[in-house]
Amino acid sequence: MGEIGIKQRVSQPKWSEETLSKFINREPLPISYKIIELNTVNPAELGNLRESIARNGGNIDVMVHPYYQTKIGSEIHPQTTEYKKMRDEFIKSSVENERPLIIFEEKGSFNLLSHRINAQKGTLYVITTTSDSPNPFFKDKFKDEKKSSSFKNCWEVILDLFKNLGVYHITVGGRYLLIHQPTNKFQKQVLENFKNVALDKKHGKEIVESGLVFDGCVGVTIGNFLLGGMDVSISPISSPSNSLKSL
C-alpha cells in the first residue's frame, strides 16, 4: 500500500472572524434523528452501520464539507442552486432510509449539522475534521496535526475503520473538488504514487489514468482513499467539479 497522506494545498477564502464565531458558537437544535461521531464512537454502536454497508454491497457515500462556504461577496466557487438542492435531498433521504452515508465536517461546525439537516428519523454518521482541511480530527491520539506522522496516521485510523466495517467502494462528493492538470513537482509525484495502488480498481483506475490532479478537500480525500487501497468514484453531488468530464 502506498504511503497515506496527501496534504491540502488549496488556499480558500474564509469567513470573517466575527461572522465565523456566530456560526461556530451556535447550540445544536433538538432533532428527530441520531448523530454518531465516528472519531470517538464505541465500535459496539456500529452494528447498524455495518449491516447497512453489507446490504449495500460494501458501497458507501462520503460527503466532504458539503455545506462549506465563505464570506458572502468573496466566494471563488459559489454553491449553485442545483448543487444545494441535490445535496439537501440526498443527505435527508440517506439519513431517513439508513443508507450508508458519512459526512466529513469540520470540528468547529459540528453543531451546525442539526441546523442544516431536517431528517425526521434515522442516523447520521459524521467524521469530524480539522479546520479548512479534510484530515480527520483526533484530539487525544494525534496532538500535533501539522506533523507528517500525525497527518498520515489520522487517515490510517479511518481507513482501518472502513475496512473493518466492510467498505470496498466509496463515492466521494461535497466541497471543494477541483480537477486540473498537474502544475508542479509535488503534484506530479502524487500522480506517480497513485499508479501502483489503483490498477486493480474499477473506478480508481479511471481516476488514476486520467493523469489529472484532484485538489480541494474532496480531491485530497479521494487521494487518501485511493492510496489506502479503496476503490473510489466521484459523486455528481460535488462542487465546483463533479466529474472527469467537467473540466
Descriptive overview:
The structure is a single chain. With 247 residues, the chain is α/β, with parallel strands linked by helices. The chain has a domain at 17-174 and 231-236. The chain contains eight helices and seven strands. It has helices spanning 17-24, 47-55, 81-96, 113-116, 148-164, 185-195, 202-209, 216-227; strands spanning 34-37, 59-64, 101-106, 123-129, 169-180, 213-215, 231-240. Strands 1, 2, 3, 4, 5, 6 and 7 form a seven-stranded mixed beta sheet that branches. Helix 3 (81-96) links the parallel strand 2 and strand 3 (101-106). Residues 9-18 have low confidence and may be disordered.
Give a topology summary.
Blueprint lengths: L16 H8 L9 E4 L9 H9 L3 E6 L16 H16 L4 E6 L6 H4 L6 E7 L18 H17 L4 E12 L4 H11 L6 H8 L3 E3 H12 L3 E10 L7
Parallel strand pairs: 1-4, 2-3, 2-5, 3-4, 5-7
Antiparallel strand pairs: 5-6
Summary of the model, kept short:
Helix content is 34%, strand content 19%.
Task: Measure the end-to-end span.
Answer: 30 Å
Pick out the low-confidence regions.
Answer: 9-18
Helix and strand element order: HEHEHEHEHEHHEHE
Average per-residue pLDDT, rounded, comes to 83
User: Which structural class do the helices and strands define?
Assistant: alpha/beta
Strand content: 15-25%
Note the overall shape: globular
- What fraction, in percent, of the residue positions are helical? 25-40%
Q: From the alpha-carbon coordinates, what is the Rg to the nearest angstrom?
A: 17 Å
Give the number of helices: 8
Question: How many β-strands, per DSSP?
Answer: 7
Largest sheet: 7 strands, mixed
